[in-house]
Specification:
By secondary structure, this protein is α/β, with parallel strands linked by helices. Helices cover 48% and strands 15% of the residues. It has 19 helices and 18 strands. A five-stranded parallel β-sheet has the order 2-1-3-4-5, sandwiched between helices. Strands 9-12-15-8-16 form a five-stranded parallel β-sheet. A two-stranded antiparallel sheet has the order 6-7. β13 and β14 form a beta hairpin. α14 packs parallel to α16 and α18 crosses α19. The longest helix has 30 residues. The radius of gyration is 30 Å and the shape is elongated.
Protein backbone atom coordinates (compact mmCIF):
# COMPACT_ATOMS: atom_id res chain seq x y z
CA UNK A 1 0.00 0.00 0.00
CA UNK A 2 1.07 3.63 -0.61
CA UNK A 3 1.06 5.69 2.58
CA UNK A 4 -0.51 9.13 2.08
CA UNK A 5 1.08 12.11 3.88
CA UNK A 6 -0.26 15.63 4.42
CA UNK A 7 2.34 18.38 5.00
CA UNK A 8 0.86 21.50 6.68
CA UNK A 9 3.27 24.49 6.87
CA UNK A 10 2.95 28.19 6.09
CA UNK A 11 6.45 28.27 4.52
CA UNK A 12 6.25 27.22 0.87
CA UNK A 13 9.92 26.23 0.66
CA UNK A 14 9.47 23.81 3.61
CA UNK A 15 6.39 22.29 1.99
CA UNK A 16 8.21 21.81 -1.32
CA UNK A 17 11.31 20.35 0.36
CA UNK A 18 9.30 17.78 2.29
CA UNK A 19 7.04 16.96 -0.67
CA UNK A 20 9.99 16.19 -2.98
CA UNK A 21 11.82 14.14 -0.34
CA UNK A 22 8.73 12.11 0.56
CA UNK A 23 7.70 11.50 -3.05
CA UNK A 24 11.18 10.13 -3.77
CA UNK A 25 10.51 7.57 -1.02
CA UNK A 26 7.25 6.52 -2.68
CA UNK A 27 4.74 8.40 -0.52
CA UNK A 28 1.64 10.14 -1.90
CA UNK A 29 1.96 13.73 -0.64
CA UNK A 30 -0.58 16.57 -0.17
CA UNK A 31 0.29 20.05 1.07
CA UNK A 32 -1.55 22.87 2.84
CA UNK A 33 -0.50 26.38 3.96
CA UNK A 34 -2.39 26.44 7.29
CA UNK A 35 -4.50 24.30 9.61
CA UNK A 36 -7.84 25.22 8.05
CA UNK A 37 -6.62 24.33 4.56
CA UNK A 38 -5.24 21.10 6.02
CA UNK A 39 -8.64 20.16 7.46
CA UNK A 40 -10.25 20.84 4.09
CA UNK A 41 -7.71 18.49 2.48
CA UNK A 42 -8.60 15.77 4.99
CA UNK A 43 -12.25 16.10 3.98
CA UNK A 44 -11.32 15.30 0.36
CA UNK A 45 -8.43 12.86 0.74
CA UNK A 46 -7.68 9.78 2.81
CA UNK A 47 -4.47 10.54 4.72
CA UNK A 48 -2.58 8.34 7.18
CA UNK A 49 0.13 10.78 8.40
CA UNK A 50 0.13 14.55 8.97
CA UNK A 51 3.37 16.55 9.32
CA UNK A 52 2.21 19.84 10.85
CA UNK A 53 3.92 23.12 11.76
CA UNK A 54 3.04 24.44 15.20
CA UNK A 55 3.00 28.21 14.40
CA UNK A 56 0.80 29.15 11.42
CA UNK A 57 -1.76 31.88 10.56
CA UNK A 58 -5.54 31.25 10.39
CA UNK A 59 -5.32 27.97 12.35
CA UNK A 60 -2.14 26.89 14.13
CA UNK A 61 -0.85 23.35 14.56
CA UNK A 62 -2.25 22.80 18.05
CA UNK A 63 -5.78 23.74 16.98
CA UNK A 64 -5.39 21.51 13.92
CA UNK A 65 -4.23 18.62 16.13
CA UNK A 66 -7.25 18.97 18.45
CA UNK A 67 -9.66 18.98 15.49
CA UNK A 68 -8.00 15.95 13.91
CA UNK A 69 -8.07 13.94 17.15
CA UNK A 70 -11.87 14.26 17.24
CA UNK A 71 -12.16 12.20 14.06
CA UNK A 72 -13.11 8.51 14.46
CA UNK A 73 -10.16 7.30 12.38
CA UNK A 74 -7.64 10.09 12.99
CA UNK A 75 -4.35 10.12 11.07
CA UNK A 76 -1.05 10.12 12.94
CA UNK A 77 0.19 13.66 13.61
CA UNK A 78 3.86 14.69 13.86
CA UNK A 79 4.40 18.31 14.97
CA UNK A 80 7.13 20.70 13.71
CA UNK A 81 8.25 24.07 15.12
CA UNK A 82 11.24 26.39 15.32
CA UNK A 83 9.68 27.87 18.46
CA UNK A 84 9.38 24.66 20.36
CA UNK A 85 9.89 24.53 24.09
CA UNK A 86 9.60 21.64 26.48
CA UNK A 87 6.14 22.86 27.46
CA UNK A 88 4.79 22.84 23.90
CA UNK A 89 6.25 19.39 23.29
CA UNK A 90 4.51 18.03 26.38
CA UNK A 91 1.23 19.71 25.45
CA UNK A 92 1.34 18.39 21.88
CA UNK A 93 2.05 14.83 23.06
CA UNK A 94 -0.69 15.12 25.68
CA UNK A 95 -3.15 16.17 22.98
CA UNK A 96 -2.29 13.08 20.96
CA UNK A 97 0.69 13.98 18.72
CA UNK A 98 2.74 10.93 17.82
CA UNK A 99 6.11 12.72 17.74
CA UNK A 100 7.80 16.12 17.47
CA UNK A 101 10.39 17.58 15.07
CA UNK A 102 12.48 20.62 16.00
CA UNK A 103 13.28 23.11 13.22
CA UNK A 104 15.75 23.45 11.63
CA UNK A 105 15.68 19.71 10.99
CA UNK A 106 17.73 17.20 9.07
CA UNK A 107 15.54 15.77 6.32
CA UNK A 108 16.79 12.23 7.08
CA UNK A 109 15.46 12.57 10.64
CA UNK A 110 12.01 13.57 9.38
CA UNK A 111 11.99 10.73 6.85
CA UNK A 112 13.01 8.28 9.59
CA UNK A 113 10.05 9.32 11.77
CA UNK A 114 7.63 9.09 8.83
CA UNK A 115 8.98 5.68 7.85
CA UNK A 116 8.49 4.37 11.39
CA UNK A 117 4.85 5.46 11.31
CA UNK A 118 4.37 4.08 7.80
CA UNK A 119 5.74 0.69 8.82
CA UNK A 120 3.30 0.57 11.74
CA UNK A 121 0.43 1.42 9.39
CA UNK A 122 1.48 -1.27 6.90
CA UNK A 123 1.73 -3.87 9.65
CA UNK A 124 -1.66 -2.84 11.04
CA UNK A 125 -3.33 -3.20 7.65
CA UNK A 126 -1.59 -6.51 6.98
CA UNK A 127 -2.70 -7.78 10.38
CA UNK A 128 -6.30 -6.70 9.70
CA UNK A 129 -6.17 -8.48 6.35
CA UNK A 130 -4.93 -11.64 8.10
CA UNK A 131 -7.70 -11.38 10.70
CA UNK A 132 -10.30 -11.14 7.97
CA UNK A 133 -8.76 -14.11 6.16
CA UNK A 134 -8.76 -16.12 9.38
CA UNK A 135 -12.46 -15.40 9.92
CA UNK A 136 -13.45 -15.92 6.30
CA UNK A 137 -11.26 -18.70 4.94
CA UNK A 138 -8.82 -20.25 7.38
CA UNK A 139 -10.76 -20.79 10.62
CA UNK A 140 -12.36 -24.10 11.49
CA UNK A 141 -14.04 -24.71 14.87
CA UNK A 142 -11.46 -22.67 16.81
CA UNK A 143 -8.49 -23.97 14.78
CA UNK A 144 -6.55 -21.84 12.34
CA UNK A 145 -4.59 -22.97 9.29
CA UNK A 146 -4.18 -22.59 5.55
CA UNK A 147 -1.38 -25.14 5.13
CA UNK A 148 -2.18 -28.29 3.12
CA UNK A 149 -1.69 -30.45 6.23
CA UNK A 150 -4.26 -28.51 8.26
CA UNK A 151 -6.74 -28.47 5.38
CA UNK A 152 -6.53 -32.27 5.33
CA UNK A 153 -7.25 -32.30 9.08
CA UNK A 154 -10.30 -30.07 8.61
CA UNK A 155 -11.61 -32.24 5.77
CA UNK A 156 -11.22 -35.45 7.79
CA UNK A 157 -13.04 -33.92 10.78
CA UNK A 158 -15.92 -32.96 8.47
CA UNK A 159 -16.17 -36.52 7.15
CA UNK A 160 -16.23 -38.40 10.46
CA UNK A 161 -17.73 -36.13 13.12
CA UNK A 162 -21.35 -37.19 12.53
CA UNK A 163 -20.44 -40.86 13.02
CA UNK A 164 -19.92 -42.56 16.39
CA UNK A 165 -16.74 -44.27 15.26
CA UNK A 166 -13.81 -44.08 17.70
CA UNK A 167 -11.14 -41.59 16.61
CA UNK A 168 -7.45 -41.47 17.53
CA UNK A 169 -5.86 -38.00 17.40
CA UNK A 170 -2.08 -38.07 17.14
CA UNK A 171 0.33 -35.17 17.54
CA UNK A 172 3.07 -33.66 19.60
CA UNK A 173 2.28 -31.82 22.82
CA UNK A 174 0.71 -28.42 22.12
CA UNK A 175 -0.54 -29.14 18.60
CA UNK A 176 -4.23 -28.81 19.53
CA UNK A 177 -5.49 -32.37 20.00
CA UNK A 178 -8.27 -31.33 22.38
CA UNK A 179 -9.46 -28.72 19.86
CA UNK A 180 -9.92 -31.53 17.34
CA UNK A 181 -11.83 -33.60 19.89
CA UNK A 182 -14.11 -30.67 20.75
CA UNK A 183 -14.70 -30.02 17.06
CA UNK A 184 -15.70 -33.66 16.53
CA UNK A 185 -18.13 -33.48 19.46
CA UNK A 186 -19.72 -30.04 19.04
CA UNK A 187 -20.09 -30.47 15.29
CA UNK A 188 -21.85 -33.81 15.65
CA UNK A 189 -25.33 -35.01 16.54
CA UNK A 190 -24.01 -35.52 20.11
CA UNK A 191 -23.46 -31.79 20.59
CA UNK A 192 -26.33 -31.55 23.11
CA UNK A 193 -24.68 -34.23 25.23
CA UNK A 194 -21.69 -33.75 27.58
CA UNK A 195 -18.08 -33.47 26.45
CA UNK A 196 -15.93 -35.01 29.20
CA UNK A 197 -12.15 -34.59 28.87
CA UNK A 198 -9.88 -36.90 30.90
CA UNK A 199 -6.12 -36.42 31.09
CA UNK A 200 -4.97 -40.01 31.62
CA UNK A 201 -1.45 -38.88 32.51
CA UNK A 202 -2.62 -36.50 35.25
CA UNK A 203 -4.65 -38.95 37.39
CA UNK A 204 -2.64 -41.13 39.81
CA UNK A 205 -2.87 -44.83 38.94
CA UNK A 206 -4.44 -45.76 42.30
CA UNK A 207 -7.30 -43.28 41.68
CA UNK A 208 -7.81 -43.90 37.98
CA UNK A 209 -10.41 -46.68 38.18
CA UNK A 210 -12.51 -44.80 40.75
CA UNK A 211 -12.39 -41.62 38.63
CA UNK A 212 -13.33 -43.37 35.40
CA UNK A 213 -15.80 -46.01 36.61
CA UNK A 214 -17.17 -44.57 39.86
CA UNK A 215 -17.88 -46.49 43.07
CA UNK A 216 -20.51 -47.58 45.56
CA UNK A 217 -20.62 -46.08 49.04
CA UNK A 218 -18.39 -48.11 51.37
CA UNK A 219 -16.49 -49.81 48.50
CA UNK A 220 -13.22 -48.57 50.05
CA UNK A 221 -12.13 -46.44 52.99
CA UNK A 222 -12.75 -43.00 51.47
CA UNK A 223 -15.92 -43.96 49.58
CA UNK A 224 -18.31 -41.98 51.79
CA UNK A 225 -20.99 -41.74 49.11
CA UNK A 226 -21.95 -43.46 45.88
CA UNK A 227 -20.50 -41.70 42.87
CA UNK A 228 -20.68 -42.31 39.15
CA UNK A 229 -17.48 -42.13 37.14
CA UNK A 230 -16.41 -39.94 34.25
CA UNK A 231 -17.45 -42.56 31.69
CA UNK A 232 -21.04 -42.42 32.97
CA UNK A 233 -20.80 -38.61 33.05
CA UNK A 234 -20.21 -38.78 29.29
CA UNK A 235 -23.35 -40.83 28.60
CA UNK A 236 -25.00 -39.70 25.32
CA UNK A 237 -21.98 -37.53 24.68
CA UNK A 238 -18.24 -37.82 24.11
CA UNK A 239 -15.43 -39.10 26.34
CA UNK A 240 -12.07 -37.60 25.42
CA UNK A 241 -9.19 -39.75 26.69
CA UNK A 242 -6.17 -37.49 26.37
CA UNK A 243 -2.74 -39.19 26.52
CA UNK A 244 -4.31 -42.63 26.38
CA UNK A 245 -0.81 -44.07 25.93
CA UNK A 246 -0.17 -43.34 29.62
CA UNK A 247 -2.93 -45.69 30.82
CA UNK A 248 -1.62 -48.69 32.79
CA UNK A 249 -2.23 -52.09 31.15
CA UNK A 250 -4.84 -53.11 33.74
CA UNK A 251 -6.92 -50.03 32.95
CA UNK A 252 -6.48 -50.54 29.21
CA UNK A 253 -8.32 -53.86 29.53
CA UNK A 254 -11.25 -52.17 31.28
CA UNK A 255 -11.43 -49.40 28.65
CA UNK A 256 -11.44 -52.05 25.91
CA UNK A 257 -14.47 -53.67 27.56
CA UNK A 258 -16.28 -50.32 27.58
CA UNK A 259 -15.63 -49.95 23.84
CA UNK A 260 -16.70 -53.51 23.06
CA UNK A 261 -19.72 -53.91 25.35
CA UNK A 262 -20.81 -50.33 26.03
CA UNK A 263 -20.96 -51.11 29.75
CA UNK A 264 -19.30 -49.96 32.98
CA UNK A 265 -19.24 -51.45 36.47
CA UNK A 266 -18.71 -49.20 39.47
CA UNK A 267 -16.23 -50.32 42.13
CA UNK A 268 -18.07 -52.34 44.79
CA UNK A 269 -21.05 -53.21 42.55
CA UNK A 270 -21.87 -56.52 40.83
CA UNK A 271 -24.05 -55.25 37.97
CA UNK A 272 -23.00 -53.54 34.76
CA UNK A 273 -24.54 -50.30 33.57
CA UNK A 274 -25.16 -49.50 29.91
CA UNK A 275 -23.58 -46.31 28.54
CA UNK A 276 -23.86 -44.62 25.15
CA UNK A 277 -20.47 -42.95 24.80
CA UNK A 278 -18.36 -41.97 21.83
CA UNK A 279 -14.66 -42.27 22.69
CA UNK A 280 -12.06 -39.97 21.17
CA UNK A 281 -8.51 -40.80 22.21
CA UNK A 282 -5.37 -38.72 21.83
CA UNK A 283 -1.69 -39.38 22.26
CA UNK A 284 1.70 -37.79 21.74
CA UNK A 285 3.31 -41.23 21.77
CA UNK A 286 3.88 -43.69 18.93
CA UNK A 287 1.35 -46.32 19.99
CA UNK A 288 2.60 -48.87 17.45
CA UNK A 289 6.02 -48.74 19.12
CA UNK A 290 4.36 -48.97 22.54
CA UNK A 291 2.54 -52.11 21.37
CA UNK A 292 5.86 -53.68 20.28
CA UNK A 293 7.38 -52.85 23.66
CA UNK A 294 4.44 -54.42 25.48
CA UNK A 295 3.32 -51.14 27.01
CA UNK A 296 0.03 -50.90 25.11
CA UNK A 297 -2.51 -53.59 24.33
CA UNK A 298 -2.64 -54.52 20.68
CA UNK A 299 -6.39 -55.22 20.74
CA UNK A 300 -7.09 -51.79 22.25
CA UNK A 301 -4.80 -50.14 19.71
CA UNK A 302 -6.73 -51.61 16.78
CA UNK A 303 -10.01 -50.73 18.45
CA UNK A 304 -9.16 -47.00 18.73
CA UNK A 305 -7.14 -46.87 15.50
CA UNK A 306 -10.12 -47.04 13.13
CA UNK A 307 -9.91 -43.36 12.17
CA UNK A 308 -6.63 -41.51 12.77
CA UNK A 309 -6.24 -37.73 12.62
CA UNK A 310 -2.59 -36.68 12.67
CA UNK A 311 -1.79 -33.09 13.64
CA UNK A 312 1.42 -31.67 12.15
CA UNK A 313 3.91 -29.89 14.42
CA UNK A 314 4.07 -26.13 14.00
CA UNK A 315 7.57 -26.28 12.48
CA UNK A 316 6.05 -28.19 9.53
CA UNK A 317 3.33 -25.60 8.87
CA UNK A 318 5.13 -22.29 9.29
CA UNK A 319 2.83 -20.59 6.76
CA UNK A 320 0.14 -20.75 9.48
CA UNK A 321 2.17 -18.72 12.00
CA UNK A 322 1.08 -15.22 10.79
CA UNK A 323 -2.57 -16.35 10.91
CA UNK A 324 -2.14 -17.78 14.41
CA UNK A 325 -0.42 -14.61 15.61
CA UNK A 326 -3.30 -12.48 14.29
CA UNK A 327 -5.84 -14.75 16.02
CA UNK A 328 -3.94 -14.73 19.35
CA UNK A 329 -3.46 -10.95 19.35
CA UNK A 330 -7.21 -10.55 18.83
CA UNK A 331 -8.22 -13.14 21.45
CA UNK A 332 -5.74 -12.05 24.12
CA UNK A 333 -6.48 -8.39 23.43
CA UNK A 334 -10.20 -9.01 24.01
CA UNK A 335 -9.45 -10.91 27.23
CA UNK A 336 -7.06 -8.33 28.68
CA UNK A 337 -8.50 -5.15 27.19
CA UNK A 338 -5.09 -4.33 25.76
CA UNK A 339 -4.86 -3.59 22.04
CA UNK A 340 -1.64 -4.31 20.14
CA UNK A 341 -1.96 -4.25 16.37
CA UNK A 342 0.70 -6.68 15.24
CA UNK A 343 4.26 -7.95 15.42
CA UNK A 344 6.88 -5.99 13.49
CA UNK A 345 8.77 -7.45 10.52
CA UNK A 346 11.81 -8.45 12.58
CA UNK A 347 9.58 -10.11 15.17
CA UNK A 348 7.71 -12.11 12.53
CA UNK A 349 11.03 -13.31 11.06
CA UNK A 350 12.03 -14.54 14.53
CA UNK A 351 8.68 -16.32 14.98
CA UNK A 352 8.95 -17.95 11.55
CA UNK A 353 12.50 -19.20 12.21
CA UNK A 354 11.94 -20.58 15.73
CA UNK A 355 11.70 -24.39 16.05
CA UNK A 356 8.61 -24.32 18.36
CA UNK A 357 9.14 -27.50 20.41
CA UNK A 358 5.97 -26.60 22.34
CA UNK A 359 4.05 -26.02 19.09
CA UNK A 360 0.91 -23.82 18.96
CA UNK A 361 0.63 -23.71 22.76
CA UNK A 362 4.17 -22.30 23.02
CA UNK A 363 3.45 -19.72 20.29
CA UNK A 364 0.34 -18.54 22.14
CA UNK A 365 2.30 -18.22 25.40
CA UNK A 366 5.01 -16.15 23.66
CA UNK A 367 2.45 -13.80 22.08
CA UNK A 368 0.57 -13.45 25.38
CA UNK A 369 3.71 -12.55 27.35
CA UNK A 370 4.94 -10.17 24.65
CA UNK A 371 1.55 -8.43 24.41
CA UNK A 372 1.35 -7.95 28.18
CA UNK A 373 4.88 -6.52 28.32
CA UNK A 374 4.54 -4.32 25.22
CA UNK A 375 3.82 -0.59 25.56
CA UNK A 376 3.85 0.13 21.81
CA UNK A 377 1.18 -0.37 19.12
CA UNK A 378 3.39 -2.99 17.44
CA UNK A 379 5.34 -5.71 19.28
CA UNK A 380 9.04 -5.21 18.41
CA UNK A 381 11.35 -8.05 17.41
CA UNK A 382 13.58 -7.27 20.37
CA UNK A 383 10.77 -8.16 22.79
CA UNK A 384 9.83 -11.33 20.87
CA UNK A 385 13.47 -12.46 21.05
CA UNK A 386 13.66 -11.74 24.78
CA UNK A 387 10.44 -13.60 25.55
CA UNK A 388 11.47 -16.68 23.54
CA UNK A 389 14.93 -16.78 25.14
CA UNK A 390 13.63 -15.97 28.61
CA UNK A 391 15.85 -12.90 28.92
CA UNK A 392 12.93 -10.75 30.00
CA UNK A 393 13.25 -12.60 33.31
CA UNK A 394 16.92 -11.81 33.87
CA UNK A 395 17.56 -10.29 37.23
CA UNK A 396 14.73 -12.17 38.94
CA UNK A 397 15.52 -13.50 42.39
CA UNK A 398 16.06 -17.25 42.28
CA UNK A 399 13.27 -19.18 43.91
CA UNK A 400 15.80 -21.46 45.60
CA UNK A 401 17.26 -18.45 47.42
CA UNK A 402 14.78 -18.77 50.29
CA UNK A 403 15.23 -18.06 53.96
CA UNK A 404 16.62 -21.35 55.41
CA UNK A 405 15.16 -20.54 58.83
CA UNK A 406 11.66 -20.94 57.39
CA UNK A 407 10.92 -24.66 57.46
CA UNK A 408 7.14 -25.02 57.43
CA UNK A 409 5.42 -25.48 54.08
CA UNK A 410 3.11 -22.52 54.78
CA UNK A 411 6.07 -20.17 55.39
CA UNK A 412 7.91 -21.34 52.25
CA UNK A 413 4.77 -20.88 50.14
CA UNK A 414 4.44 -17.32 51.43
CA UNK A 415 8.05 -16.60 50.45
CA UNK A 416 7.54 -18.03 46.97
CA UNK A 417 4.29 -16.08 46.49
CA UNK A 418 5.98 -12.83 47.43
CA UNK A 419 8.91 -13.46 45.07
CA UNK A 420 6.59 -14.37 42.18
CA UNK A 421 4.41 -11.28 42.73
CA UNK A 422 7.46 -9.00 42.84
CA UNK A 423 8.77 -10.66 39.68
CA UNK A 424 5.45 -10.22 37.83
CA UNK A 425 5.25 -6.56 38.84
CA UNK A 426 8.80 -5.99 37.62
CA UNK A 427 8.12 -7.70 34.29
CA UNK A 428 4.99 -5.58 33.72
CA UNK A 429 6.54 -2.28 34.76
CA UNK A 430 4.44 -2.11 37.92
CA UNK A 431 1.09 -2.70 36.17
CA UNK A 432 -1.05 -4.66 38.63
CA UNK A 433 -3.70 -5.80 36.09
CA UNK A 434 -0.94 -7.13 33.79
CA UNK A 435 0.82 -8.78 36.74
CA UNK A 436 -2.42 -10.47 37.80
CA UNK A 437 -2.84 -11.83 34.26
CA UNK A 438 0.73 -13.20 34.23
CA UNK A 439 0.20 -14.86 37.62
CA UNK A 440 -3.16 -16.31 36.63
CA UNK A 441 -5.06 -14.72 39.53
CA UNK A 442 -7.73 -12.04 39.76
CA UNK A 443 -6.82 -8.38 40.15
CA UNK A 444 -8.53 -8.13 43.59
CA UNK A 445 -6.62 -11.23 44.76
CA UNK A 446 -3.35 -9.64 43.68
CA UNK A 447 -4.18 -6.38 45.49
CA UNK A 448 -4.94 -8.35 48.67
CA UNK A 449 -1.60 -10.20 48.47
CA UNK A 450 0.36 -7.01 47.73
CA UNK A 451 -1.07 -5.54 50.93
CA UNK A 452 -0.55 -8.77 52.88
CA UNK A 453 3.14 -9.04 51.90
CA UNK A 454 3.74 -5.25 52.13
CA UNK A 455 5.07 -5.13 48.54
CA UNK A 456 6.01 -1.69 47.26
Amino acid sequence: MTVRVLVVDDEENIRDLLRRALEKRGYRVFTAGDGQEGLETLEREEVQVCLVDLKMPVMDGMAFLKEVRRRPEAPVVIMMSAYGTYGTVVEAIREGAYDYVQKPFEIVDVLSKIEKVAETIRLREENERLRQEVSRRYSFEGMVGRSPAMREVFALIERVRDHSVTVLVQGETGTGKELVARSLHFGSTRREGPFVPVNCAAIPENLLEAELFGYRKGAFTDARETRRGLIEEADRGTLFLDEIGDLPLSMQAKILRVLQEGEVRRIGETENRKVDVRVIAATSRNLQEEVKRGNFREDLFYRINRVVISLPPLRERREDIPLLVARFLQEIGEETGKSVDSVDEEGMKILLSHSWPGNVRELKNVIERALLLCDEPVIPGRLISEVISGKEEEGDPALINLDPSKTSLKEVVRQVEKIMIERALRLTGGSRPKAAKLLGISHPALLYKIKEYDIN
